[in-house]
Amino acid sequence: MTEISHWIGGTAWSQPGPRVGEVFNPATGRVIAQVAMADECVVDAAVGAATTASVEWGRSSLAVRARVLFAFRDLVEHQKRDLAGILTMEHGKVASDALGEVTRGLEVIDFACGLPQLLKGEFSENVSSEVDSYSIRQPLGVVAGITPFNFPAMVPMWMFPIAIACGNAFVLKPSEKDPSASLFLARLWAEAGLPAGVFNVVQGDKEAVDAILSHPGIVAVSFVGSTPVARYIYETATRAGKRVQALGGAKNHMVVLPDADLELAADAAVGAAFGSTGQRCMAIAILVAVGDVADRLLPRICARIRRLVVAPGDQAGAEMGPLTTRDAHSRVVSYLERGAREGATLLEDGRRLRIPGHEQGFFVGPCLFDHVTPGMSIYTDEIFGPVLGVVRVDSYEAAMHLVNTNPYANGVAIFTNDGGAARRFQAEVQVGMVGINVPIPVPMAYYSFGGWKQSLFGDAHMHGREGIMFYTRGKVVTARWPDPKHRGVHLGFPQMK
Description:
With 497 residues, this protein is an alpha/beta fold. The chain has helices spanning 40-59, 62-78, 80-90, 95-112, 115-118, 154-165, 180-192, 206-214, 227-239, 262-274, 293-307, 326-342, 377-380, 396-404, 419-428, 464-470, and strands spanning 2-4, 6-8, 11-13, 20-25, 30-36, 123-128, 131-139, 142-146, 169-173, 199-201, 220-224, 243-247, 252-256, 284-290, 345-348, 367-370, 387-393, 408-409, 411-415, 433-436, 452-453, 456-457, 472-479. It has a 7-stranded mixed β-sheet, sandwiched between helices. Strands 10-9-8-11-12-22 form a 6-stranded mixed β-sheet, sandwiched between helices.
């Protein structure tokens, strides 16, 4: 049985303890590893190592940090298929989706490699007679990331490259459901030359999370997960005086107007609803069909669903894999039963799916409900599985009301060929990330990721310029200097050290 440990002070760190967790292969339903569960002492050891390392790392030059980041970026690029294989084994993602996750994480590393440009301050000469004023941004110290099971590589890579580039030391608490990617990345950091203790991993569950939230040595916490947990993280950590960005849940809508390209819309709806088995915070969960578009669009969606290849993620040609856990499987099935009882029409029932040789795997096929109404639990709740609901409305205004009155506001998309309608939509919709004929509008790394309302607790979105601001604090200096002294002649080419 493989044992998955912590990573503290630049090495795998295992401390005998009373608690371990089980890690499953979701395609078979079998236990493939045990993961250590950190307690307060383990978290304290990680913070201690990070605190010691953060002093020198925070003082290191931008040139040194950039070299380490470029080396790390090259290692991830060359070993991305190995990392993707880990995601397939523990999460269940199909190979193409797992590789896509790693690639989106790499984009943030690419962005962080530009830290000399990103950390530039401002300078004003002669704000008063012979007095200059300028701003600088400095690292916070030790920061932590608490990341979800659905993106065990990408979401951590939304956090730690920027935090480390800014001069902080980082403590990562990954999901205990698929923890191996964190150690893979830790070893790549060590190989890239990152000083021991700058990047640390503590495995575990709520006990480890609570230790992080209360630890006085941690200055800031980043989190991605469900809304109830995001609220708990935010309230607990801010009460302890920490800076917090906590990204919560979602119920993303895709509005389809009658003039839309229906072939494009059908492709987009199926890809965005069932990619990664619906286990994405940016997945489309609700399709809002305006006017008569549902009767023309649904046959196209059903035809595409029936052609999807659902299989173990490492099988050639697989397009959709299993859910990650047995609990997730049970939850999705319960919502299918509830939706039917509440009066929605189940057009595609994924409970009928059977994968020969993988009967114990956590598979549910694509599911499609028509005639969903806002009062149904399949509309109000974040199911986090391969379930797409269709709500029929009469007008653009009704669609907009539906989206804007939803308590979640992570992502939204509109499909239309009317530029005026699209421009009006982007101005009026009360959602943090908007797609126009793009179903999953995840921003590139140089823009920031984050929602509104119950999808975000805190002021800062993730990565992009807001990520730089989150992991640094500003300082303004006002200076007057006497005439400089002569320092002699030096003909050597100036070097960055």
